[in-house]
Design goal:
The chain has 367 residues and is of the alpha+beta class. The protein contains 11 helices and 11 strands.
Length: 367
Amino acid sequence: MRQFTLDKEKIAEDVINGKTESKSQTERRKVIEEPALWEYNFGLQDPNLQLPHGIIRDSTTPEKFEITEEQIRTLEEDGVVHIKGVFDKEWVEYLRSATAYQVEKPHFWAFAGTASKLYDYIQRNVWQTNRSFASFYYHSAVGHVLSQCGKTSEIRLSTDLLMVNPNKGFKWHQDNQNGPISWEEGIRFWITMDETPEDYGAPVYLKGSHSNNVVDEQAVFVDIESEGLEDFRNEQLEFKIMPGDMLIWHPRTIHKVDGPSDGIWTSYRRVLGGTAAKGGALYHDKRGSGGVLSDLGQHTLEDGEQLKSPYFPIVYPRFCKIEAEERDNGRVGRSPTDIASKFGGLITKASGERFSSFFQVLGSSGK
């Protein structure tokens, strides 16, 4: 098992015997080790976890969680809202167990992000391969919360990410890996499983920055000293999120997360996040832009068509059993041919500049 835990009894014994090392001598060790190449798995995975609250898989209707008009107004005005206690201890433990399984049995689709050391573990569209995460979307209150925030009667999952410990963090940026939808058709979310560390790891947002007309929509990295951002950079909102909380924001809201200066997380920062699509969203073919990286499935949707597909499953008001069966039968996935086709459009000067913007985001440690 690739996890490190402190032996508290041994530490206490060393203190008594005067064997403790100085802080400079003590080696900081990651809570998760990087997987070896041969440890990656392929295909569908199912931890077979029992759902909370007596929920019967693929049968029980989704749960609900009412939010207030004030919270909706905060999202519209500030571009971000912190909703506390959406998921109780049972749901948090369920997500932690699903995450532990995934980290212990890493999927091949996590290889690029994990090997690049962006995160200790990161996997896009984890719902496609891990049944426990799919069941979470089908049965939890996540769709109901997002529908209220987006003022929409339908929520589909555009793309999601399982993220464990973002190493050195991410500098000021806006999100453009939202799947094949437009800014206004999407809504970003985080579901947290851990308490925010005291000195780093708290998401920080520029209040109201989703309304800026300065940052190019293809940009990822944002220089907040740029002309036109004066009204936003001096109003920063920091969120000390707790297990079971949700952060919800507009994809254009500028934000950052600072990591430890040495990139070593000695505790967990586990998040299930992504982008939901509001009812009526259309499919936008983003080949030729960095946005294609969040749309690598082998579906047959064409530009301008309704976003209705098992690849972008409906989760509110209720999941679709036919779409769920497509996923369970292994017909929702990626193919090397399709990936090559979509990546082909990225080999341009403009796309190179966009990827340069992405890499400028990496390595935030309180700067």
